[in-house]
Amino acid sequence: MTDDETPKVPEPYLVVDIQGHAPLRFESFEELAKWFNNEKTQWAWLTNSNQASSGEIESLRQAYVNGISRIDQALSALRNKDNPNIKNQLANELTNFYRGGSGYLSSDPRASLAKQKAAQFSRDAGAAFFLTQLGRTVGITNGGAARGVIDAILDSYGITPNSPQAVNEAINQITSAHQQEEQSQRNAWDSFVREAEQTVANVLKNGNDKLSSIDDKLALFTEQHRVTNDNFTREANAVIDSIQATEKTYKEQMSLQAPVEYWSKEVTRHRGAERVFSCIGIIYAAVVISLIVGTLILGVPQLAHEKGLKDDPYPYLASATGAVLLVTIAFWIGRILSRLFMSARHLAIDAGERVTLIQTYLALTEGGTVAESERSLVLAPIFRSSSDGIVKDEGGAPDLSLASTLAKFLDKR
Prior knowledge:
Blueprint: E1 14-16, E2 24-26, H1 29-42, H2 44-47, H3 55-80, H4 84-99, H5 109-120, H6 123-133, H7 143-156, H8 162-206, H9 211-255, H10 257-307, H11 314-367, H12 375-382, H13 402-412
Antiparallel strand pairs: 1-2
Helix pairs in contact: 1-3, 3-4, 3-6, 5-6, 6-7, 8-9, 10-11, 11-12
């Protein structure tokens, strides 16, 4: 090989175009087989279950089972005989499965989350979560499917389902406390029955002097039972209050999510208008200044040379009047562009302040640092009337017209 020749890059063993991903390149059959075995392992939570489902979940499972089976058959045929036709058949099977919308790579973030949901809850929960993330409608046929759909909806809003978790913890806590109390009462009653039986036997033997002891123990047991019930009621009320506070905070966060998105879009829109008016103003100022300077440098000397002030000054005066009028109009247009720029800037700043106020309020309510009586003070600046952004005249613009200039000159005379 000469120095001028470029070394050839070896062609890959197989290239598969996947929708939404970079093409898959395999340098050897072993690399292709290893990749596909990993895909089967990652989707085993969906395909290896013998439990039948219904509706969209079963359709998703059958699509993966059939697609993986066809690819596996083509891969086995290629392993037995490395033939270009079989390789093309395998490439077509991979493309039809992954590019046709039937299958998704296990590296897809939605697939990873669905696998976690399946391991945490059930296969139907993972499948329902995955279908909802893809924007498909899922029929609620069992608790696992319902859990998957709810978690997918909450995940799309960036919200962790803390409220259901708090409810589950509260229910478990109440149930556990009730079971412990019931067991304690049962043990105390059994003990009391045994003691009562023993006491009755002693009374029958030794006389009625033991009856007073039974009354004392019964009164003590009744008092203990009352105190225990009171403690249990207070703890249950505290847990219920905590659940209600969590639910209220969750609802407030959801109700203020839309204003945050709206004012964030307003910030972007007004910032864009601000940049547009800024560019137009700069270009306009450059053009006007260039015309004025060019007129002063080239037009005035040429006019003075052609007409001559001594011969006839009226053409020169008419030209000067027209020039002053054009300059006045140019300055007024520039002033309008400046006001539009400042209006867009003020509206962008106002929208940004609202976004900051809403996010601060959400942080304060989540931490429980805002009392009910103080919320109106916090919400008043957030939901105040929006201004139009027009910059008001402070002292009025100077009148640069020819009539005003002549009037001022005559007043001085």
